Amino acid sequence: MDRRHFLQCAAAAPLAGGRVGAAEAAPLGRLLIVIDLVGGNDGLNTVIPVSDPRYTALRPTIAIDRNSALPLDDRNALHPSLRPLMPLWSAGELAVMHGVGSADASLSHYRAVELMQAALPDFPAADAADTLQSLSFPPPASAPSSLAQALEQIASGAPLHSLHLALHGFDTHERQPELHGRLLARLAATMSTLRASLQASGRWPDTVLMTRSEFGRRAAENLSVGTDHGCAGVQFVAGGRLTGGVFGAQPDLDRLDGRGNPAPQIEIGALNRSVGAWWSGAQARFVPDAASSSA
Predict the structure, then answer these.
(1) Using CA atoms in the order 177, 95, 214, 28, what is the torsion angle rounded to 10 degrees?
(2) pTM of the predicted model over 0.90
(3) Domain boundaries along the sequence of the chain
(4) Any idea which fold 3-292 has?
(5) % of the chain at pLDDT higher than 90
(6) Which DSSP helix (H) or strand (E) runs through 146?
(7) How many CB atoms lie within 10 A of CB 284?
(8) What is the pLDDT of residue 71?
């Protein structure tokens, strides 16, 4: 099976108006929605380590104020622009996956995307593999509004297996506070709107929505009020039949590698295999700790 046909990462494209692609076949009852955060999302400012004083020491200019962050527990808080995700969190439908990355991490966008694609799973169940092998996931097509297109496809009742959206602009080398907040607001609005549509259509219990990004950002801010290419980052997984919570620990900011990056905790391949097991029908409920325990 060609792994690149399972999920395709978006190619470079303008931020204005994301893009969406879909695969259709005989209904299997499960829908996987992938949102690529293209450019390398900054995990530390997405899910803030509010109890770690090293965070503000490393980021004196761009750190998110604890008083404005949205608390998940005594260690983790969401960026204030992610407020639309709080109802998912309260319902136990949101999993925060810390330290998702690869031991072979590359700081090149092109190579990092290759590694992310290579981590896509093979499906052990023969019937599922035969079905998936016939599916093709073309690169997302141009659209004035990817979210509007996705909502149309959901509302149509088409037997969709997957939806793929790409949000561009996460390569925040400069002006990060201004740019990143807008990007996260757009991500949260997209996830919240998709959830509402899927609830209305009755498909939310059979849906898993996950974010991906080719890499994270460095722990320390740079001299341009931004962050440079890093290694592991935080990812979200959401769904109506999901074990929610925080999986993995906040990065240890006292133990960074020679490039200033925390080590990955959850291999991207383990997360993809966990999602794949659910999507193929081998797993009745998506359990994120199956991925985190495999790191």
Answers:
(1) -140
(2) no
(3) 3-292
(4) Alkaline Phosphatase, subunit A (3.40.720)
(5) 51
(6) helix 146-155
(7) 8
(8) 98
